[in-house]
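Reading is simple: each integer encodes one residue's backbone shape. An example follows:

___
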Amino acid sequence: MTVTPPVLPPAASRHRHAPVTAIGLWMIAALLFVSQSAILKWLADDYHFSEILFGRSAVVVIGTVILLARGDGITAPFRTAKFKLHLMRFLCFTVALASFIQAVRAIPLADATAVSFAAPLFMTALSVPLLGEKVGIRRWSAILIGFVGVLVIANPSTGIFEMAALWALISALGYALAIIITRMVTKTDNTVVIVFWLNALYVITMPAFAPFFWVMPTWTDLGLMFGCGLIVLVAQLIAVTACTLAPPQVLAPFDYTAMIWATLLGFIVWGDLPSWTVVGGAAILIASGIYILMREAKLQREGKDSS
């Protein structure tokens, strides 16, 4: 008796060109990821990043196993032909998250988020050599204008230029590489499988830090980790789906919307009052985003791709 290997779809069969839908999903994911960042900042003073990631990811793994059991089957992740890409994606996200947690321990959430917005620049630049994508002057302009908006919101304070800023910059590079790899792996693997592997690898590896850093969490903090896991489960499913509908350089400008959410959450949770620079920077961000969204909608109606 012979076992027939699983038949994988053609390389790009899981990709569809729907940039407007992708942009909408990406902005929703940005809000959810900033909410996660706020919880991480809250927990980071008392817990090592490995313990936080373990608790959060355990919830995501349980959620994805339930989804797999109702869909492609719980053995679906083990039929992947791209495990090396899943592993690389995990390493990049680990660097990004660990570095970001280090950053927000020392500087305000909005400041760390502002510095981390070098990520869209990295994403756009790396998509050319790694994905063979075209990036034209309009997309570069939207990204650069958005970055100006981020700088206006941040109103570069002394806190941004501390050592913590380097952690935020490393986080941005790790995140950009992770999104590029996500685009690669979505060619063959479905969304739930991609989310499963990232978080399963966290659950497997993070306990290695337990003897050195872990402490017993309170019930309140366990609840926060659980809530963080639910948020991340939804956010990752949405973000990976967006990556199947548009390339990174289309989505990159809309990473900047997270700056608005970070500023609002900073005010709601920590009482950081927004200044006139927040309003001015947000206006620049919104204008940049509306421009690229309208352009992508127009080109989608015309059945064209933009550059």
Q: What stands out?
A: The CA atoms of residues 111 and 156 lie 8 Å apart. Residues 19-301 form one domain.
